[in-house]
Amino acid sequence: MNRQRFLVFAFVVLVAIGGSSTYGGVEAQVAALESRGQFREAGQVLSGALTDAALGETERKQLAFELDRLERIRKDYPLTKGKLFGALQEAVRDLTEREFEGWIAEGRFDTREIDGERRFMGSSVNNLFFRHAELSARLLPPKDTAKHDLANWETCVSIKQAARKE
C-alpha cells in the first residue's frame, strides 16, 4: 500500500511540475475553454502562444496540433439545428418539428457546443438511419448526390496532398 501511495504522490508531483510551465498553463487553459465550447477563444490562446519565440520545437508542434484539432472538430460539426432539420426533412418522410425536437432530447445526434451554438455532426442524417433501423421505412429516395460525391473526392485529394507536404 505504501508503494501505491508513493507512486500516486510521485505522479501528482510530476503533473504539478509539468503543469507549471507556460506550455502546461496554455494547455490547461485551452482544455477548459474547449470544454465550455469556447473554440474561438481557445484558438486565440493557441495562436498567441505559438508566437512565443522561447517555445521549444516539441511544444510548438503540440500547440499547432491542438490548433488544427480544434479546427477539425469545428469541421466535424458543421450543422446548425436548422440545417440539420432541413437535411432530415429531405431524408425522412413526414418528419415533424416536434418529432425532431424529441430526437434531440433523446440524444440521437452527436452534438458539441461551439462558440455559443449547439452544432451537429455532419454525418447526423446517415447516423440516424444507422443507429435506428426502424426509420428505414421512412427513408426518402436520395437526391442527385454527384455534387456531394465530388466534394468528398476533392476533400480526400486535399488531405492526401497535405499529408505529402508533411
Tell me what you see in this structure:
- By secondary structure, this protein is mainly alpha-helical.
- It has two domains: 2-76, no CATH class; 81-165, no CATH class.
- The protein is built from eight helices and two strands, in the order ααααααββαα.
- The protein has helices at residues 2-19, 22-35, 39-50, 57-76, 81-91, 97-106, 124-131, 146-165, and strands spanning 111-114, 117-120.
- A hairpin with a 2-residue loop joins β1 (111-114) and β2 (117-120).
- The longest helix has 20 residues, at 57-76.
- Residues 1-20 have low confidence and may be disordered.
**What form results from the Cα inertia axes?**
flat
What is the tally of beta strands?
Answer: 2
Main sheet attributes: strand count, strand direction, barrel closure: 2 strands, antiparallel
Which percent range describes the beta-strand content?
under 5%
Report Rg: 22 Å
Distance between the termini: 48 Å
Query: Unreliable segments (pLDDT under 50, ≥5 consecutive)?
Result: 1-20
The average pLDDT score comes to 87
> How many domain modules?
2
Number of discrete helical segments: 8
- Would you tell me the structural class of the helices and strands? mainly alpha
Order of helices and strands: HHHHHHEEHH
Record the strand order, biggest sheet. Answer: 1-2
What is the percent of helical residues?
55-70%
